[in-house]
Amino acid sequence: MKKFTIAALLLFSLTLNVVAQDQIASVDQGAMVATERAFAKLGFERGVRESFIKYFADDAIAFTPHPEKVRAGFLKQEPETFPLPVTLNWAPVWGDISAAGDMGYNTGPVVYEDTGENKRPTRNGIFFSVWKKQADGSWLVVLDLGAGVPTAVAPLTASYLSATTTLPKKQKLNAKDELAKMLKAEGELMAASAKGTISATWGKWLSADARVHRPRTMPALGAEAVKTWLATQTFSYSGRTMFSDIAASGELGYTYGSFETGAPNGLKGYYARVWKRDGNGKWRVVVDILSPLPPAQNKLA
Predict the structure, then answer these.
(1) Are the CB atoms for 259 and 268 separated by under 8 Å?
(2) In angstroms, how far is CA 270 from the centroid of its own chain?
């Protein structure tokens, strides 16, 4: 434990030296962000296969388009050839971490560049990754989801901003009880929007600083942008939770599952959602992301 603590402090220090404006809330978050940056560097230099094998947990999930264990899939593939025909680069610019320092998430810009002769224009995206600290103190991705966007959401050199708000020092939560409360809130959100519309119902569960990511559109970030986005969501939404997990401190957790929207939207696919318990004990959505299925593959798992 002592060895890891020293290593984490050094990693945290190096992170602050690289980007002086980073707003890092703790040593654990500094280690998580530094690991994300190391992951991105390896992905840019050595390709997706090698980097994902190294930084994904064995049971980590991505949507391709259905939920799949990513690491096992890449282990079956042949190593990438060099030079890479397409380079993938990304950077964490926003995220949060649990009070226990065992679970967190990052999100930020992604840049795709063709390196071959017939180059397509540079493409932009936004990534989202949930990270968990492992028994040996290292950090690995457990959930990954991204989407293309019309233009860059932020520069790759942008500093990191933390959304972290810690629990009062004397407040201790039972993670099992809080997980049940989080899932109850998710069930209530699903039931309400299945009977009504997203615009009429979701405001009750969204955090004031919520982030909403949707494919091919710029993310809605913060209260005013989310309010504007909500006004356009005039259709129903139903879904099924497939997985959930919560930090040991009991105030931060995530879910993913399947969803289906009513007309005029009419989409099917998968969602990922981060929940956070506020100071009043209410569970709020802080990140909501969709991964719609292609029209030709619209049968849910």
Answers:
(1) yes
(2) 13
- The reply to whether the predicted model has a pTM over 0.85 is yes
Cis peptide preceding 83, ω within 30 of 0: yes
Question: Would residue 183 be called left, alpha or beta, if left means φ above 0 and alpha means ψ between -120 and 50 degrees?
Answer: alpha
Q: In the numeric block, which tokens belong to residue 232?
A: 């356009």
Closest C-alpha to 255, from 174, 165, 198, 185: 185
Cβ atoms 212, 219 nearer than 8 A: yes
Instruction: Please identify which residue in the block is written with the tokens 């990140």.
Output: 287
Q: Are 180 and 130 in contact (CB under 8 A)?
A: no
The region, left, alpha or beta by phi > 0 then psi within -120 to 50, assigned to residue 179 is alpha
CB 221, CB 107: distance < 8 Å: no
pLDDT digits (tens, 9 = 90+) for 66-90: 999 999 999 999 998 888 888 999 9
Q: Exposure pattern of 141-158 as b/e (b: 16+ CB <10 Å)?
A: bbbbbbbebeebbeeeeb
